[in-house]
Write a structure and sequence with these properties.
single chain; mainly alpha; 0% strand; globular
């Protein structure tokens, strides 16, 4: 699978995830929702583990970053559930959709990735659309 196909599946999956979050917190509290979501992630983890014959990579640095990624994801999900339980999902998902700005800033500052003028225009338009969607 090429990167664009994978990104489209991810986009679809995250879109469904955002919607299902609201349905979840209509029936259970946000902390319980995180626990059950984690069960779902563990299921996908075991499926993936079986796809690589139960032999994940063992590089210490990569593994540590992956664990930190999981922690960041877990914290983000917990507070996403909290926000979804207290606000309109349309507004919550729109506001949290700003997360790429954090990634872009970190990539620029730490990884020294460049941001072109065209990309800056795209970022500006995304910010404007987020503002319009959340009001």
């Amino acid at each position: 699978m090429n990167w664009i196909s994978a990104a489209c599946v991810s986009l679809l999956s995250f879109g469904i995830w955002g919607f299902l979050t609201k349905l979840t917190v209509l029936h259970i509290d946000s902390k319980s929702a995180l626990i059950y979501q984690t069960v779902g992630v563990v299921i996908i983890g075991f499926v993936t583990l079986s796809l690589i014959n139960f032999k994940p990579a063992t590089d210490i640095k990569g593994s540590a970053y992956a664990v930190l990624t999981g922690i960041a994801y877990g914290v983000g999900c917990l507070f996403y559930f909290v926000a979804a339980s207290k606000g309109k999902i349309i507004t919550v998902v729109t506001l949290t959709a700003l997360y790429p700005l954090i990634t872009i800033t970190l990539a620029y500052l730490i990884l020294k990735e460049t941001v072109s003028v065209k990309q800056c225009v795209g970022i500006s338009l995304a910010l404007i659309s987020i503002l319009l969607m959340s009001t």
